[in-house]
Amino acid sequence: MEQAQSLAAVQRRVQRLITDPDGVELALAASGDGDGAQLAALLSDGGLLAPARLAVYANAYFVRIHDCLREDFGALASVLGEAVFHDLVKTYLMLHPPSRASLRHVGAKLTEHLRTEPFAAMFSKRCAHAADLADLEWAITEAFYAQDAPAIGPEALASIPLDAWAELRLDLTPSLRIIRCAWPVHRVRGHFDEQVAPPPGGARSIFTEPTQIRVWRNEERVCYRSTSPLEADALELAAAGDSFAAICDRVAESVADADAPRVSAELLASWFAVGLVVGRHRRESRANESRLQAAR
Question: Are 53 and 113 in the same domain?
Fold first, then answer.
């Protein structure tokens, strides 16, 4: 038991040194082992001094996280440039080190970091819409990993009596995200996805424009598109479990009373057409489903 406890203590210390955002040398100095003598007594000789050997793992640790963030925030990395994005990742990890074993969640606070951290203001000066772009790209990542749910067609509504429509409540795909931005960042992400050059003037040439973006996964493909404030409000009402009558009331606030039923019906039809409306019985996520199949 004592040997197991000693091994666990060594593992915890090595983990702290490898993951310290200030680097192995400063972490050793802060722990009172500036010359690495205590650390060397714990590690076998591998041809390098113990601090240098740990630095190899520390660098690999950062590079792996950096690469994951660059994959999740590809358009942002492209807009900022490699060197600036590297600095963003470094400052982000200093304040928000990974708290979960899976790197799937490592970028969860990057948008908040860009919007609220005073030290991150330098990145907004380089790209004013950096936070909005990060918000969109994280929504795309979340939509990809969201729980599965089979989409249903409009024929599912055929059996609903007319007097029950007012209280009808829709189940929307768990992958749905509504992003409200000050910039039309879907255009920036669109250029990145299409691997085409941005318009003259680069990404900075877009102008501030209040924008609502709908993000969702249709089967295995994550989709995003700008949408009207009315549709964004209607989708948020539906996602919150409000009735179809409440959605119609919201529509009636923006269009003439005579047009409200038609506009509401058109919205509903468009949601069915792109797989936003799903069945009530949601399946396990794709990852869980794959594990279950492997176990069988």
Answer: no
